[in-house]
Fold:
Amino acid sequence: MTATAPGATRPGRGPGTPPGPAAPPVTASSRAHPLWLLAGVAAVLVAALAGVALGPVDLPIGGVTMSALDRLPFIDAPSGLSARDTAIVWELRVPRVVLGGLVGAMLATAGAGYQGVFRNPLADPYLLGVAAGAGVGATLVFAYGAGGGWIIDPLPLAAFTGALAGVAATYLLSRSVGGQRDTVSLILAGVAVTAFFTAVQTFVQQREADSLRRVYAWLLGRLATTGWSEVRLILPYVAVAVAVLLVHRRLLDVLSVGDREAVALGVSASRVRLVVVIAASLGTAAAVAVSGLIGFVGIIVPHTVRLLTGGGYRAILPLSLLFGAAFLILADLLSRTVLSPAEVPIGVVTAFLGAPFFAWILRHRRLQ
Amino acid sequence: MTATVQLHTGGPAPVHVRDLTVRYGTHTVVDRVALAVPAGGWTALIGPNGAGKTSLLHALTGAVPCTGSALVGDDDLTALSSRQRARRVALVPQRPVIPETMPVGDYVLLGRTAHLPYLGLEGRADRQIVADTLARLDLGSLAARAVSTLSGGEQQRVVLARALVQHTPVLLLDEPTSALDIGHRQQVLELVDTLRRDCRLTVLAAMHDLTLAAQYADDLVLLDHGRVAATGAPRDVLTSARVASHFGADVHVLTTPDGGLALVPARRRT
Structure:
């Protein structure tokens, strides 16, 4: 493979430029660097161990680790934990840590997906009416659904249904005014739907003042678990949504040159946008159903990853998944330990910690 | 020692555009245009701003809907998927969108999209094609740099490299030199011409510098208000009367010492 040429006969080469190497090097690809992936996995493991071990009853890290290993097939690891501690680990702490990881991973990858298809750094998972719709659903349950007699907990179902209704209303509205090619009309439709649903929610909330405090707490986000039921509830949605988002990571990089150039490169931008928006919205709706509105994760995690690695979406998506999970597990740990036994809403923790950290990264990177 | 890197284009193919029409709402911007570019030829689209040159090129890539037909060899682009089109025509846009922080190597790799499985990633062969093309265009040392940090001339070659790795028989250029100084204009156009001969590419280029269009293209197609106003060899198309009526410009059409054509703006003082 020789690719050298005399400089004099080649356009675009300045005089005196030394000839190129005989064999052109294969350029590095922008896949997530293995070290970053390793760091992400390590962050999730450390966060998970801390999340399981720390709480009102502090448990030994070694015992927790052994207890986890013991659950793996073919491994017999005596943990030394009492039966009560084992129950705390497997029925209280682990489900909550897993739920935090799922929600964090979902919100961060959904945020990255939205930012990619809308080519808008401010896009977050709640952009298209998901949050406002879920808010209406949850508020209706708090205001009128407290009577009991429910076979299943109505709150996640109402939030999930409301979230999907919000996205569907946004999509239908934008189709009727601007067509699917126009991303601006989609974002503006999201603004209109959010305003309307928020008005409905505020109206119901004001009429039923008893529900105010609980609605407010829900809006700020919380990861309360009752065993594994919440995890089982959202796992299928999150798994499918994250998988769909991950396989589109290279196409999100293609979309970064704009719709027209993407088409010239052979990709239908509107089709990619539709699939990614559906997957991200479905997953976000599932996350919102069990966690309320946890802000900031969907924006700062992808941007932090981008600033740190400098990569395209093919690096940002898998790393957002890992660091989003780790970040939310740690945020939840703080939310339930700082004012123990009371809980600080997790949305307060994510913003209180996330904003200064993000500002520091932003400043650090811009100065370079 | 010569450049022996072969860029595969699937063999030369002529372009035949017939009855091509592009409408934005009720506004017709390209009106029943017919043109032909012989295999391995260079045809320049000229015309005043808003004549429909860019819309015509975007219609060929599928970025804007159109009616009519556009044949590359025997294949009608208007009947193909965008993926199939992207294996037949590659576009160098007038103002490419350069993603912030994207390295040159990754940016050029985007050109391989139509050759990859829809949701798949590139393989070693694709990265080798990118590396070869970067070396061919003297960009090998810039592969790790962010495209946005390069100079205008370097960026233009990077965008050209992205189009070349598409391995299409036809290269579409939309005012490829509009952002460049006179030296870099010549370098880029010479590069395109060399690649055209080496790789037997068929070139259709919208060009607004009429002198450069006359120097590099075999044939000119003059568009005005979306219609073909004149077509033929540069000397036949570029008369001072036509330039006056279609561009509203007052020019001298001169013959250069080497027999070429040059258009010089005339300023008549009253």
Observations:
- Residues 1-6 of chain B have pLDDT under 50 and may be disordered.
